TrEMBL record:
Pfam family name, one: Glycos_trans_3N
Biological function: Catalyzes phosphorolysis of the pyrimidine nucleosides uridine, thymidine and 2'-deoxyuridine with the formation of the corresponding pyrimidine base and ribose-1-phosphate.
UniProt protein name: Pyrimidine-nucleoside phosphorylase
Source organism, top-level taxon: Bacteria
Length: 431
């Protein structure tokens, strides 16, 4: 291992055999954490070649169980988001695409820090179970074309251990390590094609378009080498997505989208991602046709019906679809007012995510319990005109005194007399 650390420290390329040896020995505890930490730091500073990062993904992938979904007919398509504030897209997207005949075996994650997790949001639906067995997961995708679950403990165990190590060694922000981590789990889930939603902006992991592009290219490159057809969209996270941040609030917004209502940005992005998935799943010959199919499925209620089916299949109460008030409700609602008139020219998206975390809606630590009812409903977004005293956002809380959090939310808004240029929702597409 010392030889391999030295080789990577000096900027050389590790071979497939070396990477496989390293991962095998790390998982079997023959390599200690301190040596793997040194290797991660060497990768952080010197990067990896395209083939090298793909081989790291494959080595981590084969460190545990790999799902075989061959018995499910059709091209299985999944979607992965790099995470953002108010990003609830997976929830309306999965039933929408499944309603059009594409099998969706979706393995999702939990939230940590200022970004929310799909599994936490779904668990705000009474009874919803994300911890299905491998057989239950496969059976649901085969029978009804969709399931959204957490990864089993036996899937890519090397990644789980390395991820925990990166968290405490300052090596999280490494594009080869991020890309190989994501792809080891996604390929292990047995999917045939992948759509990536790579967020860029002040509420995203990647703050600049340059970094987001590098990550998107790395993900698509690994997909190509794994024979997993992939496409990546760089999407805007310079403000929260939609008007809700918080678990049950985002489920209610997702239901609105499936009713062909809800905020335009969430609806537009859901349809654009659905179109990419339909083309990859060979259910549409072009993106234009696919967009029309997705719009029809929202309009005629097929997608909504499929969401009810998903909830029922996974032990939840489908009545929440017709009555979102059955979702957890916060005790207090506190308005945050605009201190001056003008236009919203900037939103500190990260700060709003942290505010929801401080209300109890997000985790500062991995094992923290969540309050599924709390969050924010935004009344003003980028480019919106405001008068002094207008409500910028409504805090949904289960504590009476949220004055410090209200001040934080107010400060997250920049109001100026000039009309701002609002960035496009989709920056670019990488194939």
């Amino acid at each position: 291992m010392v030889d391999l650390i030295t080789k990577k420290r000096d900027g050389q390329t590790l071979t497939q055999e070396e990477i496989e040896w390293m991962i095998d020995n790390y998982v079997s505890d023959a390599i200690p954490d301190y040596q793997m930490s040194a290797m991660l730091m060497a990768i952080y500073f010197n990067g990896m070649e395209d083939t090298e990062q793909a081989q790291l993904a494959f080595a981590m992938l084969h460190s545990g169980d790999v799902l075989n979904l061959d018995q499910i007919p059709g091209i299985k398509v999944d979607k992965h988001s790099t995470g953002g504030v108010g990003d609830k897209i997976s929830i309306p997207l999965a039933p929408l695409v499944a309603s059009l005949g594409v099998p969706i075996p979706m393995i999702s994650g939990r939230g940590l820090g200022h970004t929310g997790g799909t599994l936490d949001k779904l668990e705000s639906i009474p009874g919803f179970n994300v911890n299905l067995s491998e057989k239950e997961f496969v059976d649901l995708v085969q029978e009804h074309g969709e399931a959204i679950v957490s990864a089993s403990g036996d899937m890519a165990p090397a990644d789980r251990r390395i991820y925990a190590l990166r968290d405490v060694t300052g090596t999280v922000e490494s594009i080869p390590l991020i890309a190989s981590s994501i792809m080891s789990k996604k390929i292990a889930s047995g999917t045939n094609a992948l759509v990536f939603d790579v967020k860029v902006g002040n509420g995203a992991f990647m703050k600049t378009e340059e970094d987001a592009t590098k990550l998107a290219e790395a993900l698509v490159s690994i997909g190509k080498q794994a024979n997993v057809n992939s496409v990546a969209l760089l999407t805007d996270m310079s403000q929260p997505l939609g008007i809700t941040i918080g678990n049950s609030l985002e489920i209610a917004e997702s239901i609105a989208i499936l009713r062909n209502q809800g905020p335009k940005d969430v609806r537009d992005l859901t349809i654009k991602l659905a179109a990419q998935m339909l083309v990859l799943g060979q259910k549409a010959p072009s993106l234009e046709v696919a967009i029309g199919l997705a719009e029809d499925a929202l309009r005629d209620g097929r997608a909504l019906k499929k969401f009810k089916q998903l909830i029922q299949d996974q032990g939840g109460d489908p009545a929440v679809v017709d009555n979102p008030k059955l979702l957890p409700q916060a005790q207090y609602k506190i308005a945050v007012k605009a201190p001056r008139a003008g236009y919203v020219v900037g939103i500190d998206t990260n700060a709003l995510g942290v505010a929801v975390m401080q209300l109890g809606g997000g985790r500062a630590k991995k094992d923290a319990a969540l309050d599924l009812a709390v969050g924010l409903v935004l009344h003003k977004k980028l480019g919106t005109p405001v008068s002094e005293g207008d409500t910028l956002a409504m805090i949904h809380a289960n504590q009476e005194d949220v004055s410090a959090i209200a001040a934080q939310v107010q400060q997250a808004y920049t109001i100026d007399s000039n009309v701002p240029v609002v960035p496009p929702l989709i920056h670019k597409v990488i194939r």
